[in-house]
From TrEMBL:
InterPro entries: 6-blade_b-propeller_TolB-like (IPR011042), MRJP/yellow-related (IPR017996). GO terms for cellular component: extracellular region. This is Gluconolactonase. The keyword Magnesium does not apply. PANTHER family: PROTEIN YELLOW-LIKE PROTEIN, PROTEIN YELLOW-RELATED. It comes from Komagataeibacter melaceti. Gene3D superfamilies: TolB, C-terminal domain. Keywords: Secreted, Signal. Residues 1-34 form the signal peptide. It is found in: Secreted.
Length: 383
């Protein structure tokens, strides 16, 4: 079966003529061609230091249209002050979109309690997932979990959607999100599941709970050391990273330990799709190590930020897989951002050295940096 038959498969499924096992067939069609590994880039990509901080741990970054860096500062990593900020000319975080939205005195439904993921679209719309949990070991703040839409051209909050408590479980943690096709797709890293929010009517569904593709299957190892919780147990983080194709058709995701899966969002937006189809729908896209970020560049290249070896890999549109750099400065490369002019911005977040992942002891080595790689100028792989 050729990939061009996929639209027909989708039409049959939506018409009710496709059996539940078709989701598995759909995945097999998409995963039929394995990625071709290329030798590491030689010489490796040049890593440029952009900005640093002696007070803040940044785990995700985006670049606004005016060139300013937007950063996420998780409270659980030991940060104080705003959870979402723009960096001023001195590299200091200024609350974003404003101080009121980052003020603990503001009612929870009108402030960013604990930003967990950000998505900046080409039109300047910023989507923020607020987990509502400054401390992952504690229940969410009442009215805290939500989706926030911000117009970065005006710096104004446009709309919010409260996450229905009925879609969460004791121990849930909304950790990652992508928005497309009029829906928000949210990964629950605490109790693995996918929460799908239809934005026009705020209809919310909890799907794929404990599906293997969302569930961590191995420890997270950084420089040969297994990450541990404050109680000394092995740290387990289920689905924690997402990326989505520009047309919203394909969702890429992974539990923190890897690997990366790919899922047709048709399966998520259609309420008629069965649980069996959803469980069989994800395709193993690449057997990656633990990743701190998945980034899709405008040219269709996926960048994987390997926390186990401080490396960046690229998976090109033609399915060629290649390491572009290993650099000890990229310690825990977090949620990065690819600009249209070919610049990849990467926060070296050091999350494995924060107390929640280091047996309760904070061992962050200051300063913390954001780096940049000119991926647009990299040569093609050589075999």
């Amino acid at each position: 079966m050729h990939a061009n038959s996929l639209p027909a498969i989708r039409r049959l499924r939506h018409a009710g003529f496709l059996p539940a096992c078709a989701a598995l067939l759909l995945g097999a069609v998409q995963g039929a061609h394995a990625a071709k590994p290329a030798p590491p880039l030689n010489p490796p990509a040049v890593v440029e230091d952009v900005v640093s901080s002696t007070t803040s741990v940044w785990d995700r970054v985006a670049v606004l249209a005016d060139g300013r860096l937007l950063v996420e500062l998780p409270a659980w990593a030991g940060n104080t002050g705003p959870g979402l900020a723009v960096l001023d000319s001195g590299g200091n975080p200024q609350p974003y979109p404003d101080s009121t939205w980052n003020d603990p005195a503001t009612p929870a439904q009108k402030r960013l309690v604990a930003p967990a993921d950000i998505q900046l679209l080409p039109d300047g719309t910023l989507w923020v997932l607020d987990s509502g949990q400054p401390d992952p070991a504690q229940p969410p703040v009442p009215n805290g979990p939500k989706i926030v839409k911000i117009d970065t051209h005006t710096g104004q909050v446009v709309q919010t959607w409260a996450i229905d408590p009925a879609t969460l479980r004791p121990g849930s943690r909304p950790a990652t999100m992508r928005v497309a096709r009029g829906h928000a797709f949210i990964g629950d890293s605490g109790i693995p599941a996918m929460i799908v929010v239809r934005l026009d009517n705020n209809r919310q569904r909890r799907l794929m709970e404990h599906t293997p593709s969302l569930t961590a299957g191995q420890p997270i190892t950084v420089d040969g050391r297994v990450m541990t919780t404050p109680t000394g147990h092995t740290a387990i983080v289920n689905i924690s990273q997402m990326e989505i194709s520009p047309d919203g058709q394909w969702l890429y995701f992974e539990p923190l330990c890897g690997p990366v899966y790919k899922l047709d969002t048709d399966l998520l937006v259609d309420p008629a799709v069965t649980p069996i189809e959803l469980e069989e729908g994800p395709t193993l896209w690449y057997k990656t190590p633990a990743l701190g970020g998945i980034t899709l560049a405008p040219d269709g290249t996926l960048y994987f930020n390997d926390v186990s070896t401080s490396s960046i890999f690229r998976l090109m549109p033609d399915r060629v897989y290649q390491k572009i750099v290993t650099d000890s400065r990229l310690h825990w490369p977090g949620g990065s951002f690819a600009t249209r002019d070919g610049q990849l911005y990467i926060p070296a977040a050091q999350l494995d050295r924060t107390a929640p992942f280091n047996g309760g002891h904070n061992a962050v080595q200051w300063p913390v940096h954001i780096y940049r790689i000119n991926v647009g100028s990299l040569p093609p792989p050589k075999f």
